[in-house]
Amino acid sequence: MRTATDVVCPFCGTLCDDIEVDVDDAEKICATRNACIIGDNKFMTAQAPDRHLHPRIRRGGELVESTMDEAINKAAEILVNAKHPLLYGWSSTHCEAQEAGMALAEGVGGTMDNTSVCCHGPSVLAIHTVGISSCTLGEIINRADIVLYWGCNPVNAHPRHMSRYSLYKRGFFTERGKSDRTEIVIDVRRTETAQKADIFLQPEQGRDYELMNALRVAFRGGPLPESVAGIPRAEIEKVAQMLKDGRFGILFFGMGLTMTRGKHRNIDIAISLTADLNTYTKFLIMAMRGHYNVAGADQVSLWECGFPYAVDFARGFPRYNPGESSATDILARKEADAALIIAADPGAHFPIDMVRTLASIPMIAIDPHVTPTTEIASVHIPSAIVGIEDAGSAYRMDNVPIRMRKVVEPPEGVLTDQEIIERIHRRVMELQGLEVPEVTAVKEPAEALAPSAFDDILQRAT
Amino acid sequence: MQQGRKVSRRMTSSDPVLTANLITGRTIEQGVAIEGWKDKQEYIDAAGFVHIDPSDFKTLNVWPGSSVLVKSEYGEVVVRAIKSPYGPHPGIVFIPMGPWANQVVNPDTTTTGMPSFKGIMVTITPAPGKKVLGAIELIKMTTQGGVEV
């Protein structure tokens, strides 16, 4: 039995890096500590006996097991024969695989898009318009005395966010933790996050934009109607005063704003609201990123080609035009003639019209588990689970990069996302008649399986 | 209704109809179920339901846990009706993000890339005897089911 410590949880954008995982002598994960229920489940189901370990290719209407070489070859043929392939997902894998994906997308002249498109894509569009004043979560721990959650529900979506960073954690200027902070929640339902808030406002659905503007008017002491978005004027003025009176405030926002009518305009006004508050106090804003490395997908795309998501390489150079070059719109307009889906499940999470397009074109799905996407794929290649069976870099919701650790070896024959993408790319180059470079994939050294990343440091310190 | 007594009834034009504003989103159970449980009953239990405000339940006149048909102009789906623990929010219903919700959400991105996953007008009617399909079964039934290459 050994215990891996300082393991990073590969589920949500909180990227908790204090997980302990017990591994028995047969290299089976048998327990976790510190993880939330979702994180614990992710580790405990990683080695489930019914996990699919072999690639499958659709034959006679059914997915039939094949060899890895066959699946890689078939995947490469699909991409080479396509005029406009879509390469989508990338958020539940590490930056190294995303980097390999960018090269593949450029090589096949496809569109590279990540799950930001149906997550915080609108936030990115708003940032293009008005910029953003944000910070790291460490600043929140030490300084924030006003914590405003708007259209997000961390108790359900980021279960340890409040205890690790935003509410209960004791910091340098917030020695008493929750007692030193005021929690304000604005949501259309009284969620668990809202139920224990100091202040809860329940606006009418889809009218957050009006409410934010009303708060901006209230900051300036301007006239307001009797109620805005169903919230009485007195309540709006009270909350406006509380926000102004704080020493250091933070606005966390989620899908309640980005998916609601107005979309990027809601975020535009939320950022403007925080900018206004800086006339009176210090106030910042942060997106509650969902997938554990969706922020990394944006970062990799940015440093590789200058654009964060929805990048179209069809013309041989990167073009960025969300609404046109976004995966959702491409599928809605039935423009893609092939797709490679990795580290995401649009089969479950895209509107059904878009899924119908995915199911009607040759599609490669790379995913450790069986999902609605893999079951409508032409080729399914199971992969190692990043953060459990593969190490790599990921970006937390505040854009801090964290090294994901490897706890156990992947099952025999199962390749990592990076290896699969690089092998497909090499085969694509062969089919295109290009010179194939030497293998560049670097296997994580055995040290990555050592109990703790900090052991060396501790030993030296003592 | 007596417990255990089987009630069979056919839909008629006088069946109750609830018109509501649908929002979708994450729940912690849905988060657990998407990691390795998508082909299992656990996923149906975690995401194949609709939260309805207790006051709206009276309009619908069904037992909590019964099957209901949720319909929008974009599609329809059978899910279980559950009394919302996050009320009061009359007029608003919630389905966890997933294949069930995505049968009825508005795919229009209004040129932002983001479909409209919240704020969809739906009607809900009782669907006695109708089964909530599994995620994979549902996707295979409502799409072409994949292409051979």
Structural summary, described in words:
The complex is a heterodimer of chains A (462) and B (149). By secondary structure, chain A is an alpha/beta fold. Chain A has two domains: 52-116 and 293-449, 3-Layer(aba) Sandwich (Rossmann fold), CATH 3.40.50.740; 121-287, Dimethylsulfoxide Reductase, domain 2 (3-Layer(aba) Sandwich). Chain A is built from 19 helices and 21 strands. Chain A has helices at residues 37-45, 68-81, 95-108, 121-130, 137-143, 154-157, 161-166, 192-195, 208-219, 233-245, 255-258, 264-277, 294-305, 327-332, 346-349, 352-359, 372-375, 417-431, 455-461; strands at 2-7, 19-23, 29-33, 56-59, 62-65, 85-89, 111-114, 146-150, 182-186, 199-201, 227-228, 231-232, 248-253, 282-287, 311-312, 319-320, 338-342, 363-366, 379-381, 392-395, 401-404. The longest helix of chain A has 15 residues, at 417-431. Chain B has one domain (18-139): Barwin-like endoglucanases (Beta Barrel), CATH 2.40.40.20. Chain B is globular. Chain B has four helices and six strands. Chain B is of the alpha/beta class and 149 residues long. Chain B has a six-stranded mixed beta barrel with strand order 1-5-2-4-3-6. The model of chain B is unreliable at 1-11 (pLDDT under 50). The longest helix of chain B has 8 residues, at 135-142. Chains A and B meet through helix 1, strand 4, helix 2, helix 4 and helix 6 of A and strand 1, helix 1 and helix 4 of B.
